[in-house]
Amino acid sequence: MSELDADVLDLYRLSVRHGRYTAEVGRELALSEQRLGRALRHLCDLKLLLPLPGDDGSFVPVSPEVAADQAVAPLHQEITDRQATIASVQARIARVRPVYDVTVREFGRLQGIDVLPPTVETWTSLTQHLARCQEDVVAASGTDLTDESTLSLPLLLDLVEAEVRPRVLLPHTVRYNAGSLHRLEQLAETGAQIRTVDEVVAPIVVVDRSVAILSDRDVPADAPAGAVLVQERSTVSYLYGALDYLWNRALPFETRSRDTEAGHYDDLKQSILHLLGEGMKDEVVARKLGMSVRSCRRHIAEVMESLGAASRFQAGLLAARAGLLD
Fold first, then answer.
1. How confident is the model at residue 88, as a pLDDT?
2. Residue 273: exposed, middle, or buried by beta-carbon count in 10 A (0-12, 13-18, 19+)?
3. What is the Cα–Cα distance from 99 to 109, expressed in whole angstroms?
4. Could you please report the per-residue DSSP string of 213-260?
């Protein structure tokens, strides 16, 4: 639609002054028939002039607000109709969601991925895979070693044959828990190789690079967790590679000595500083490092005191300046 030119504006002004448009009003502009007709059509298209019912050739001028409502009403209706069409299409497609979900789960099972509930049968299935271990077991857990969950490391590693030396990855925090430390020493005595890292996301065990056992995390927080049994080769290979990568960068568990404990405590403090520097709350830091919130807050207080910081923000700033976050 072209811009409003002088002819259109003059005709609208004159129509408003007279309260209506008639052929007689149009002649006052002294425009050619072509120019007058074009201006009249333009005002009618914009709904600034509305025809008077039963009076051919006469139009009544309306305010721009009323004209705008009249002009965009069909567009609003079109939008409403299209929104209804969109909702209808989405509703029809949503009806196949259950079919898709069931099929994907079945496909995953057939491809070597089984989601197992927290039952005795699940535990039996896991123990069978561990009992068949021939060469290598790599395990990781982000929880305390005394945890009694389905994928508890003590329960799993007790099933491994003595000649297989399992590699166990745990968070640094187990070094400062009396119960965990005692269990670590027991595991080491049986031949387990133990290392610690900043954090372990979730329990996982890979057996002979052919089977991976993960904790089923798609459950409510207060519900018992089942397990995910993965036998699809590419997925198991990827999980093994990720654990092996962490293993090569982890710190070996050694016999306790003051120098060793002090060094690892420095690693723990650095982990805390990194997480605080990312703006994480105490509860999140505690969960990531596998410790209680109370213990986490005690460590945070010790870190702040050692840096002479009055706030968490200042602790991060001072740590960065001192090169502790490098």
1. 93
2. buried
3. 15
4. EEE---S-TTSPP-EEEE--HHHHHHHHHHHHHHHHHSEEP----HHH
- What's the predicted TM-score (pTM) here? 0.50
| Residue 214, beta-bridge partner list | 204, 228
Residue 128 contacts residue 207 (beta carbons within 8 Å): no
Long-range contacts of 253-259 (CB under 8 A, 24+ apart): 253/175, 253/184, 253/188, 253/194, 253/195, 253/196, 256/181
- Residue 85 structure tokens: 């069409």
Q: Are 275 and 284 in contact (CB under 8 A)?
A: yes
pLDDT value, residue 260: 45
pLDDT averages per 10-residue partition of the chain, 326 residues? 81 92 90 92 92 84 91 89 92 86 67 79 77 84 57 55 76 72 72 82 87 79 78 91 92 59 58 75 76 78 79 74 66
Task: Write down how long the chain is.
Answer: 326
For tokens 């602790």, the residue is 315
Nearest to 141 by CA among 106, 169, 122: 169
Spatial distance between the Cα atoms of 38 and 2, rounded to a whole number of angstroms: 11
Which pair of structure tokens corresponds to residue 205? Answer: 């065990």
Q: What token pair was written down for 20?
A: 């209506």
